[in-house]
Amino acid sequence: MTGRVLPYDVQGSGPHRALVLHNWFGDRSSFAPLREHLDGTTGSYAFLDCRGYGEAIDADGAYTMEEVAADALAVADDLGWDTFSVVGHSMGGKAAQLMLLEAPERVRSLIGISPVSAGGFPLDEDTWALFAGAAENPGHRRAIIDNTTGGRYDDAWLAALVDRSLRRSSPTAFRAYLDSWSRTDFHERVRDNPARVLLVVGAHDPALGAEAMEATWLRWYPNARLTVLSEAGHYAPEETPKELADAIEAFLAA
Asked: Which residue range or ranges hold the AB hydrolase-1 domain (predicted)?
């Protein structure tokens, strides 16, 4: 699949280069709290919008993880980056693995923030109805965010994330990406991959926390390691941005 150069911006000019892929509920603006804590003298971070999100909200496409991976590689080409790491939050973590498979000589390492595995994210019938209905129903979005952050936040915080996701994502793209990140399975293609991988999860994330990582990523990537943030749920870039920035920078510098 041929990628398209989508809207992106770069923070920092340091030697540790990383492409950053957002989650299902957020565009690249969802990383704003994290960006305040990144050291631009050591890292260069390219934040991009997936098709149907943010400044690319009107971009047509198939809205698949394969397309996200191809678009991200097109951004790397546009930047002239021969090698780089990939940071992927939730569904962005699944697309990051396809980038590794497509361009193993270019992707130096992966950082998954509560990342969806190569095996997808199986959902029972009721949960599937909740997730699929979230494309059109703000209440479904709120329920998902509340659950995956451990029910710890007030109405104002939840409303802000729901409002942003509604304003900065296309319902068509939002719904289509669900099929791709949850239902496609390519874990046999990544089994025993030697890439360096950092998994950063929140202790209050019941969906993609430590237990999920142990059952998937840590079985398939022999050089993966896990960091658990004690005060985060599924949205560490917004819940614990400094702690996440510290973990990312330490891994990239190692």
From this structure: 19-239
Structure tokens that stand for 56 in this block: 């690319």
Query: Phi and psi of 110, rounded to 5°?
Result: -120, 140
Going by C-alpha positions, the residue among 254, 247, 245 that lies closest to residue 45 is: 245
Provide the pLDDT confidence category of residue 2 given band limits of 50, 70 and 90: confident
Task: List the one residue out of 54, 51, 108, 52 whose CA is nearest residue 76.
Answer: 108
* Bridge partners, residue 224, by sequence: 197
Q: Which two tokens stand for residue 158?
A: 């939840």
Q: Which residues contact residue 15 at a Cβ distance below 8 angstroms, ignoring those fewer than 6 apart?
A: 42, 43, 44
CA distance 144 to 113: 17
| Per-residue tokens: 59 | 């971009």
Sign of torsion, CA 157 159 162 168? negative
Domain range for 80:
8-253
CATH of the domain at 150: 3.40.50.1820
Inside any domain, residue 2: no
pTM above 0.85, yes or no: yes
Strand partners, 197: 110, 224
Mean pLDDT of the chain: 97
